[in-house]
Queue: 2 jobs
Job 1
Amino acid sequence: MDEIQTLKQWVAESNNIVFFGGAGVSTESGIPDFRSVDGLYHQKYDYPPETILSHTFFMRKTSEFYKFYKDKLLLEGAKPNAAHLKLAELEKAGKLKAVITQNIDGLHQLAGSEEVLELHGSVQRNYCMKCHEFYDFAAIKEKVEEASKTNEPGCPDYMVPKCEKCGATIKPDVVLYEEGLDNSVLTKAVRYIANADVLIIGGTSLVVYPAAGLIDYYSGNKLVLVNLSATAQDSRADLVVRGKIGEVFSQL
Ligand code: NAD
């Protein structure tokens, strides 16, 4: 495929690559995205995922939130795929400056990437809403399990993890709909993108704002979109590679 050859050459020639990705980067690791045909938006729940993953819903129907969260986002055992591993390798080689991700799964760090800007937070971090005690992924998973055994389905605390110190509800450090992004992370992401020589965007439908608007800060002439399906921004790209990102990156 000529596009892959071009991408390979741009990667070989640059020491200032920035990667910006979304849920499609992790589908080959077994984590469903939102908008693909088998993504979460096409599965059946009592409420649409955008509603469940909103701040209002979390506050009002915490038990329902955790039911969805446990089934779909607290996924244990997912491993980095070829895309995560290649990005970590490029950073170690001094070619890639940063990974900016909309994902909350922590797979880039697991692959060995160091400069990872998580625009939407991470399931790996959780805090008590009252005393701010920290809980990691394993602790939260255990507490959700515990709360599903000690409370009956239908009870407001069913599956809701509680703080060991003060008993208040624990909230994942993920940015829910209606919540703002961390300004310092966003500013850093803008800086990396504005200074990038090659910007590779992959596995994102580019419809979730403000994250999707980051593309506007790139002023170079090597904007690459690697995605399985067309995105609304394809016409702005200097190179469009249509395919599975893990398969594409393993050829670089
Ligand atoms: P999205 O679901 O809107 O879009 C994913 C895009 O990736 C689609 O265009 C799809 O065609 C493409 N895709 C799927 N598999 C691919 C593959 N193997 N290779 C290349 N492209 C592939 O996801 P989004 O744009 O990231 O926005 C959704 C929001 O959902 C984000 O804010 C993110 O925080 C959150 N989310 C995160 C995870 C995760 O952490 N893994 C999973 C689901 C949703």
Job 2
Amino acid sequence: MIHYKYMILTYGCQMNESDSQRMGTQLEILGYEKTLVLDEADVILLNTCCVRESAENKIYGKIGEIKHLKQAKHELIFGIVGCMAQKEGEALFKRAPHIDFVLGTNNIHELNNIINDIKLSRHHMTKLAPADGGIPQEVLPPSGNSLSVWIPIMYGCNNFCTYCIVPYVRGREHSRPMHSIIEETKKYSADGVKEITLLGQNVNSYGKDMPEGDFADLLYELDKIDGIERIRYMTSHPRDLNDKVIETIKNSRHICTHFHLPVQYGSDRILKAMNRGYSLEYYRKLAEKVRKAIPECSLTTDLIIGFPGETDADFEQMLTFLRQMRYDAAYTFLYSKRSGTPAATMDNQVSDSVKKNRLNQLMSIQNEISLQINEAFINKTVQVMVEGPSRTDASVYTGRTSTNKIVLWQKNGTEKAGDILNVRITHPQTWILKGEAQYAKEK
Ligand code: SAH
Ligand code: SF4
Ligand code: F3S
């Protein structure tokens, strides 16, 4: 019997990772097997991102590469799904006629129908519900023996930060019913899953559109489920992170003490132009509150460099802010103009060379801070959840702390993925902590 194979290449954020897992499950129901070799695949999906131009360019490059595969194997089915599919729609066929179908962000559940249709008719096909056309229908959770799974808890975004394309391609906020998330989590727990990551563009506004409860209530309920050792979530909008959520995390058994609170910029003038809905003063107080409630927590952020109108004075303020905040890590992005967003037509766009120069300055300051923070872990023992062998050396194992720090150690024991292990840190670095496993204390 011939086994037909599929491969999904995923770009962008965790929401896309989650959608890809769920599309994988659907394809397996159709009888396809997963492959990691592009040439072997009978169905290739590109799950795309359009948050920055660089992402789009990379994806167009990949679309081009797949042309020769399609020429060599005519029965190959090639589909574009995700955010760029939603944004570009049928225009993708003009640019690349070898694409068979385009599936929008709210049409994931129609994947198998479209594949069956393509097999019969071989025409360019599109399924594109309007981005804000309602709740994407529930798709089966991924099968399999994973240790860690993504769980979407809400879709879309209502915030319309002026630089961002996401609300246009993902539509308005819709929360998934709480009972459905709880049931899904219980099923994972029974399957041996140890870590869940709740996903949404703004998880703190979970539940605002339904009566069942809010984000804190959801966290409280999920924390009660035995077997799930770690509960993570992303992303938290600073404006909507309230005391109830902080208290719930503080009093929980399994909710991770990592706060990813994207500030985006370090000057009030730019924050306002970005439509972020908070001031630096508000953000500082919030971070203080979190650190006071949960002193062992880690704090990370996203920053955009080169937003239109950014001056040297804004940038200096941002550097001062960064030195004050002392983030464990900052994910930095060069501002990318997204047509259709308000910032795209703002005056005083910043040149690429100025942006890059500022980015380098900012990164060298942040790297120094990250290293200092990590150096304080020397000789301290941290608790990690084991993930397995590291990529480069099978005898070196890796895991993460509740605060999301990556820890590496030489494996000398019987630890396996999912175990909780104590590791004494001996060699802290900017991005990782290296240490020695403390087997005597293993649970
Ligand atoms: N909803 C999440 C993140 C969405 S996109 C949040 O609000 O935090 C992930 C990150 O990409 C954002 O935090 C932002 O830092 C960055 N980003 C979004 N649009 C961008 C743009 N046009 N140019 C550069 N970075 C951008
Ligand atoms: Fe984009 Fe802002 Fe929504 Fe995040 S909160 S997805 S940055 S519009
Ligand atoms: Fe990209 Fe869409 Fe996520 S634009 S960042 S994949 S929501």
